Amino acid sequence: MSGSVRVLMVDLLVERAAFGHGGNQEVIQPFAERGNVELLLVTPQMQSFEAGAKAEAQGEVTLEEIDVPHWDDDYPFWQSTTVEFGDQGVDFRRIVMPMHEDDERMSEWLAALNLDAVVCSGSRRNVSIWEDWMGPAGSLLRASALSGRPTLGICFGHQLLCHSLGGKVERAEKLSSGIWDVDLTDAGGSDELLTSHTEDVECVAGVFSHQDHVMTVPDCCTLLGLTSHNRVSAVRVHDADGTGLPAWGIQFHPEATRARIERAYGWGHISEEVFNSMKGEHDGAGILSSFADIVLSQKG
């Protein structure tokens, strides 16, 4: 690997320390194990549209508290912090993002940041209950995925990616929480993200917690996996010729380690019923490790 890896996280769970900041750490852990990494974070759900003009004009702009009038004060605002992974410190830094839906301009902004990967987290919001900030966030994901940059949408990020590419998202009557086997399609059984860590090419286990569901696969995506309760659980984006791009959406939470789940329950962020439904082994760590390998192999 040459130089430090730069990852941009669309950080949509800042108000949930266990699955937000903690989940971000789980995503970054395999990168830190392999070398130097830096994490940039954007929070469009908290940011003003006016602040986005600064990013448009200046590129990489440090986020100020004045830029996020919708910040959840239950979680203290910080611009940057250093997280220790073993003997390595990784910088987490918040920046301003453009708040428009022009994919060409968004692509230029992303390119100027010299990013190696983009990840979108889960959220307590819902694509089926649309909010204005979701348009720019969707443009960011679409522009990144179609550019060939490694891109990963997790839960809400999966839904927003699919919606931004033309897929249909609907809200179910009730929440689905627990560990399900994701049955892999033929394409999923040979997919490098989902199966590089395992010899099982028929299914992988994932932690689910969602009420919105992707109902249709976008034309520019390939279905990789589905469950008994969720018909579009994993997709891969492809180009106009049908060649797979290093961009995925997964409905499940690979970052939901046992320790994070226990901490979330201890802090009162999830109910006992949800906590009990998430007991068991899953393939999240292996999938995040595979994503890091994909990013590093593309970086060269």
Architecture overview:
With 300 residues, this protein is α/β, with parallel strands linked by helices. It has a single domain (5-299), classed as Rossmann fold, CATH 3.40.50. It is built from ten helices and eleven strands. It has helices at residues 21-34, 52-58, 103-112, 134-147, 156-164, 186-189, 192-195, 258-266, 272-277, 284-299; strands spanning 5-10, 37-42, 80-85, 88-94, 117-120, 151-154, 169-184, 203-214, 221-226, 234-238, 244-250. An eleven-stranded mixed β-sheet has the order 3-4-2-1-5-6-11-10-9-7-8, sandwiched between helices. A hairpin with a 2-residue loop joins strand 3 (80-85) and strand 4 (88-94). Helix 1 (21-34) packs across helix 10 (284-299), helix 3 (103-112) packs across helix 4 and helix 4 packs across helix 5. The longest helix has 16 residues, at 284-299. 49% of the residues are buried.
Q: Which descriptors would you attach to this protein?
A:
300 residues, alpha/beta, Rossmann fold
